[in-house]
Amino acid sequence: MSGRSPTAAPAVPRVGFVSLGCPKALVDSERILTQLRAEGYAIAPDYAGSDLVIVNTCGFIDSAVEESLDAIGEALAENGKVVVTGCLGARSERITERFPQLLAVTGPHATDEVMQAVHTHLPRPHDPFVDLVPPQGVKLTPRHYAYLKISEGCNHRCTFCIIPSMRGDLVSRPIGDVMLEAERLVGAGVKELLVISQDTSAYGVDMRYRTGFWGGRPLRTRITELAAALGSLGAWVRLHYVYPYPHVDELIPLMAEGRILPYLDIPFQHASPRILRLMKRPGDISGTLARIRAWREICPDLTLRSTFIAGFPGETEDDFRRLLDFLEEAQLDRVGCFAYSPVEGAAANALPEPVPDDIREERRARFMEVQARISTARLHRRIGSTMRVLVDAVEGTRAVGRSAADAPEIDGVVHVARARGVKPGDFIDVRITRSDEHDLFGQPAKD
Ligand code: SF4
């Protein structure tokens, strides 16, 4: 396919294709056309018969630029729904300045982004084989919440963990694909998106934060941009497994503004700089405490969840006390603690001075005792407040749900009495009347 004579094809939805430029651009065109056909789109012979037109441009010399701009102008005039890709697209401002009405503009070698734009503006045709699976995919969670995986693998090498050796280095999903999946989930009734990965805050590092596309608009493959875009869909957005990078600070204002839930699941693992070094984790614990204080100043409602390991090889009583001191100072809301257990293949197994089993367990129990007191006190502060709750289950007039502070499965719940006329997936405002170590109790605020 080249020149301005798109080939004929049978059925709807139909895409017109204009391919300009060199053999490399031609290969890009072929890839996009192959993908279109594989997904059941037809290639239309003319602008009038197309539901959407893709123009693959060339930007090599001035005359090629002019020819490309002319082709875009012609496609817009004749059809109106136009996606631009190719070398000229790499200088997108040059195109959008002149043609602000384009659906999307991508650079060269961007089959995925072009296909995302096509999916957004001209949904995929029904395929009786693939469409046995609903458009939002198969979900194992209740209908009103869903996990959204944004990447696979991890670039860190924490010595207790074998995930990188099993799953490899970080590979982020294209941001347009993630957003499309999120949109479909919300469209299918999902009220809460739980963002997961092995390393959520590293999202896009492997792609050098390249600009993708969503809804025809450029969007950087980066966690702050992704969180803000997800927050615009109208569902709760909860972030899990956030490694404590400096740029996590950027997420807190989004939480303070109510765009994503004020909830951060941020595994700290330990608080003794010596043990953190042995774990190959960031060791600036006083910096961490200062950041937690700053986050809470910006977002006083912030719920912090974390996980820790007690009895890591080489941990002394002094290291462990530092960990307890950190807990007292950080006043985290939700905390999990594991006694160190040597996972086969983990580098930490080779570290000297392993802690005996009984001491690992004893430290874990002491840790949980301290944290139970802190969690209880933090929950107690909620009494008298009104919290928005997403209902998970209803039995008679009693409902169980979760507030912004509670992730499913791992955190506590809100027990709601006198919850008449509510069903799973509803939001209700609940007046909190009682608390215990894990859960809150209350009744609908309007009662
Ligand atoms: S613990 Fe988390 S951050 Fe560390 S290597 Fe494993 S997956 Fe990566």
What does this structure look like?
The chain is α/β, with parallel strands linked by helices and 447 residues long. Helix content is 32%, strand content 21%. The protein has 12 helices and 20 strands. The chain has helices at residues 23-38, 62-78, 92-98, 111-121, 163-167, 175-187, 223-231, 251-256, 273-279, 285-298, 317-330, 357-380; strands at 14-19, 42-43, 52-57, 82-86, 104-105, 145-149, 151-152, 171-172, 192-196, 211-214, 217-220, 236-239, 263-265, 303-310, 334-339, 386-395, 398-402, 414-416, 427-435, 440-444. The strands form 6 sheets. It has a 5-stranded parallel beta sheet with strand order 2-1-3-4-5, with helices on both faces. The chain has a 5-stranded mixed beta barrel with strand order 16-17-18-20-19. Strands 6-9-12 form a 3-stranded parallel beta sheet, with helices on one face. The longest helix is centred in the last third of the chain and has 24 residues, at 357-380. The chain is globular and about 75 Å long. Residues 1-10 have low confidence and may be disordered. Bound molecules: iron/sulfur cluster. Residues 154, 156-158, 161, 163-164, 198-199, 243 line the site of iron/sulfur cluster (SF4).
Quick synopsis:
With 447 residues, the chain is α/β, with parallel strands linked by helices.
Strand order of the largest sheet: 2-1-3-4-5
Tally of individual helices: 12
Q: Tell me the span between the first and last alpha carbons.
A: 67 Å
- Overall mean confidence score, pLDDT: 89
Q: What's the helical proportion of residues?
A: 25-40%
pLDDT under 50 segments (min length 5)? 1-10
Strand content: 15-25%
Largest sheet: 5 strands, parallel
Bound small molecules, by name, code or SMILES, are:
iron/sulfur cluster
Estimated structural class: alpha/beta
Radius of gyration: 26 Å
Shape: globular
How many DSSP-defined strands?
A: 20
